[in-house]
Amino acid sequence: MTPGASRLRRVLVALNVISFALLVGVAAWAVGALRTAGDTTRTTARFDPSVWAGQNVPGACSGGFYARRDRTIVLTIVAHCAQPGATLRDAGRFVGVFGPMATLTECPADRFCAPSDFLTLALAQELIPWGHLNVVDLGAAGYRTFTSGTRPLSCADIGLGQRAETNAREHYRAGPVLFIGPYRHESDTMFPCMIVADIEVAIGDSGGAVLVDGAPAGVVSRAIGDRLAFTPLAEGLDNLGLTLCTTPDCELSPDTAEQPSG
To answer: What pLDDT is recorded for position 60?
Structure first.
């Protein structure tokens, strides 16, 4: 058996028997528990306000993608790192309000099912990076800008061997897709689709934006073994009635956008 085949076999076995939530962590950051795999050398300056899509969000997990619901700008945040309806503050500063989680009504009794592992964070006006809402910050790999009409990928759009990349924890990593299939752990949230990529994963990666062959594809959701597993973006956006931002201001403006109260 080749090394690649052996690794894939271990990943497939792990998918059926183990998983753990990638908890954020102020505590984890403090004790230095994070792995250091990936490139951390930035190639671009940060905007002001910062683009949090692809980056760590103070007080929460890694940010995913900017989207809008009607006239409200939101950032996707992994569901297991936040409480729907809660207010997020950082050092006393109002950051935003968490919205509902993506959820599926057809689900076995006493279980929770979701199309993708995220909810939303409606951002305070001063933290919205107007002019850059169609951007994901991949740190060492630079900014990735989506053009008008860019379509978020669904599970069916993603294939084995395609190149996945993420910058969660501000550690840029990339690797091929190894596995695509349902996630049916006996005591965890059930997802119709989980995609595993050959990318090392660690505490704090949850929620990070994942691109596949350069397209917006999903958010980091689990560790399968020590490999990155993500849930697809399109299904979660549709479930929550969200539109991915593919223009600089997401068809809104500071004057027309609705603001959360905190």
So the answer is: 83
